[in-house]
Amino acid sequence: xxxxxxxVDDALFMRNLLRxxxxxAGWEIAGEAADGNEALQKFQQLQPDLVTMDIVMPQRSxxxxxxxxLTVSPAAVVIMCSALGQESMVxxxxxxxxxxxxxxxxxxxxxxxxxxxxxG
Amino acid sequence: MDMAKYKVMFLTEAREHLQKMSAQLVxxxxxxxxxxxxxxxxxxxxxxxxxxxxxxxxxxxELSHHLEDxxxxxxxxxxxxxxxxxxxxxxxxxxxxxxEDIAAGREERSIEDFCQAKVEPQTxxxxxxxxxxxxxxxxxxxxxxxxxxxxxxxxLLVILRQLSSFGxxxxxxxxxxxxxxxxxxxxxELLINTNLSAHExxxxxxxxxxxxxxxxxxxxxQQAKSVATGGATVRVGTDLLDRFISLTGELIxxxxxxxxxxxxxxxxxxxxxxxxxxxxxxxLHHQVLQVRMMPIDSVTGRLPRxxxxxxxxxxxxxxxxxxxxxxxLDRAILEELSxxxxxxxxxxxxxxxESEGTITLRAWRQRDQVMLQVADNGRGMNPAxxxxxxxxxxxxxxxxxxxxxxxEALQLxxxxxxxxxxxxxxxxxxxxxxxxxxxxxEKLGGVLHIDAALxxxxxxxxxxxxxxxxxxxxxxxxxxxxxxxxxxxxxQTIEVERRQIQISGKQRVFSHNExxxxxxxxxxxxxxxxxxxxxxxxxxxxxxxxxxVGLVVDGFAGQKEVFxxxxxxxxxxxxxxxxxxxxxxxxxxxxxxxxxxxERRR
Lengths: 120, 602
What we know:
The complex is a heterodimer of chains A (120) and B (602).
Chain A: E1 4-8, H1 12-24, E2 28-33, H2 36-46, E3 50-54, H3 62-72, E4 78-82, H4 87-95, E5 100-103, H5 108-119
Parallel strand pairs in A: 1-2, 1-3, 3-4, 4-5
Helix pairs in contact in A: 2-3
Chain B: H1 7-30, H2 35-55, H3 58-77, H4 82-104, H5 112-116, E1 137-145, H6 152-164, E2 167-173, H7 176-180, E3 187-194, H8 198-205, E4 211-217, H9 220-223, H10 238-263, H11 267-292, E5 293-295, H12 297-300, H13 303-314, E6 317-323, E7 328-330, H14 331-352, E8 356-366, E9 369-376, H15 383-392, H16 398-403, H17 406-411, H18 434-443, E10 447-452, E11 458-465, E12 470-478, E13 481-486, E14 490-497, E15 501-504, E16 507-512, E17 515-521, H19 522-525, E18 536-544, E19 547-553, E20 555-563, E21 577-582, E22 588-592, H20 594-601
Parallel strand pairs in B: 6-8, 13-22, 17-19
Antiparallel strand pairs in B: 1-3, 1-4, 2-3, 5-7, 8-9, 9-11, 10-11, 12-13, 12-20, 14-18, 15-16, 16-17, 18-19, 21-22
């Protein structure tokens, strides 16, 4: 059975990119969310194996959403999506329990390496 | 009370008790209902507990208490199952590791995991092997990220957090706080207490493509053999101490006697006093050597356990017999023998014995030498095969292979490079580590003999001097200098008439007891000028690789007992040089290792 991912990003372009990367690697896309509030809802509803979480999003930020998710499911595996120059936010997320992070622009290899590491 | 001064004593005694325990456990395995055996085990565990508790070594005391409890249950039950023996042996191993911790002055490792893997007597019927306890070790990790990694500080933070899931991070440079304050950090160095191996951690860190370089190792301070430091101790019987005191008393009396004889200019009394002094010194020397003597048991104690474990692993049924464990040898020799013995026994199990057999370790005195023999009744060795193999490997020339007698062919397994562990198959013989064994034995001034009969087993025989520190040497002259040869290596000294010497090919040979023996010149070996031969040549008959050889010297200068001193660096690695000694007249004499010298020339 293939593993299921929930992709959280406010930019459709980024979601599509990650969707392709994960599908290519044989993953099932459990769902997508465009902001932090939706992320928590979808997480509870879909119970994915992995969440990719953008950091900067409108309404509720990725770091807030990360904390929400870990509150309801402490074992959840969340990796952060960051851009250059967001290092301090990435570190904050890691301190709050994010397992790892990927840096934009995404490269398939990099993404899969991180995914394999956090799930393997 | 300051307990520190009892530490060495505690360590020595606890090790002795543990050795007895493990030997007893192996013995009980063959006779599981032996009540006396179980009682003896209980007593050992109890003694260890008492000592550790009074020294305040908590983990050690707790674990021995735990083992004592188990043993008590087995005593009530009247027998110990094989599973339980595995468990108890693992327990004694852990106790030894704790001793190492204590000896090194570090914190005792945790015994929690071990004690939780309890083997209850009720469950003993089911074949459940107690897993060996996971032990925590301290590892040092050093890593560096690639130059172009995005968000290096965040990357290090991820790595640091992952590592902290492997164990306790004792120290980290930069620390987590420093990483959080960011800055361009790319290096991470930390100490972790973990039950994962260095290899496992390294493999995990290599999963990060951002990591450019990673090293995981045990911290240096721990690698140094801290156990060996701190001076070894020996236990000496009080009777021996009494004899020292009475000898000292006699020496004092002797001094007064000499003083008064000298004062009176009484040469006869002086002569008598000196004669007496010589006897006293000789006696004292003998007694001091006694202190250094230890029974062979003290190194063979672990062997039954080793044989048992190896036999189990290889699925063979092996009986192990020990004879002459009470024979005493100088402790310096015994310490060096421990590894060679293990090598030989391993070889016997791996290559000698096929599925079932006996290994015998025998020790006996032969004049002033001790013989130690490891024999198996396995498949033996095939000289023809050994010759062929050595030839293939280019270790000997075709001519050598042809002229080589079977006995000599057997000794080929001692050549370095004859066989390596990875090449061991049914036909590869038994060269694993035999070069190491041979080197160790010869370093002690001993000789290694191998004999084997196809299908009837193999015997490794070690001929050892009783003591290394003081040996008897033959002083010979070469180019107006004296050098010494250990007497154990000298079979005979002979004066050979020049006309008895013949030339055979390039080799000078001489006839001795109807045997033609090769002659080698010590001058030639040492690169000294060779003068015209006199009418008589002085020859030292010795043995190299089991073959008699005549060593030509300029003359004999007598026998002496000398105190051997190790060569200081950089001379210590020089092949053929066994050490040095200072003679009564203050001159320095080198002790030659004939075999090493001749082999170096080959």
